[in-house]
Amino acid sequence: MTDHDHDHDHDHDRELAPTVDEITDFEVLEIALRELCIEKGLFTAEEHRRFTEFAEQINSTPAAHLVARAWLDPEFKKLALTDALAASKAVGVDWLEPTGFGTPSDFTALKILEDTPTLHHVIVCALCSCYPRPIMGNSPEWYRTPNYRRRMVRWPRQVLAEFGLYLPSDIAIRVEDSNQKHRFMVLPLRPKGTEGWDEDELAQIVTRDCLIGVALPKPGVTTNVITDTRAAVHPATE
């Protein structure tokens, strides 16, 4: 074996794995469909970029303000429960044109589910991942998993307990299943200890999980809370 051959084999042994995993069939389909739409003039590459950036920056803040305002204003609460789209618009979300540049939502039927002292709501999409994105942003990863979708419908009390939400047996749980055209969000009960708070203060404790129904709003627990963590059984050593 020559030195050249030896060096070649040595370099081959040192080859690194690709830094990007092979793309999935769904990703290939998305690329092909996007390029075809641009080619046919349905939208431009610039419009696609703007919509993608819009979709990535939306979050649950408008929904949190909707809940906080409903807690403070009985008339607004009535509006929220009877005309959720109008209530959404009052907190800055127009479901007919959420992007602000001529792109309507693909679904325009939102219902707000009011919790009571004896009834707790939780939302799920048993089929896929339907979610009120214009007002709550993109759904969390666990919401889209088959594990959550299947088990929440069958054993809601057990699954809620896994989220740390333990409800008394005298509180009924109603699981609302989103579908192709209907979206839901939860209006939780206002917690004790928030008397005298204004809308901004109240909105801070209405987290995304409260709006889904897997958590309850609590004073001191905000969207930015850092939860306690358990130490690793076998921590890494330096």
From TrEMBL:
Its protein name is Thiocyanate hydrolase subunit gamma
Extract the Gene3D superfamilies matched here. Nitrile hydratase alpha /Thiocyanate hydrolase gamma
Disulfide bond as a keyword of this entry, yes or no, is no
Keyword Metal-binding found: yes
Ranges for the Nitrile hydratase alpha/Thiocyanate hydrolase gamma domain? 25-215
Per UniProt, which keywords does this protein have?
A: Hydrolase, Iron, Metal-binding
What are the leading ranks of the lineage? Bacteria, Bacillati, Actinomycetota, Actinomycetes, Mycobacteriales
Q: Which amino acid positions bind Fe(3+), per UniProt?
A: C125, C128, S129, C130
Q: What is its EC number?
A: 3.5.5.8
Q: Name one GO molecular function term.
A: thiocyanate hydrolase activity
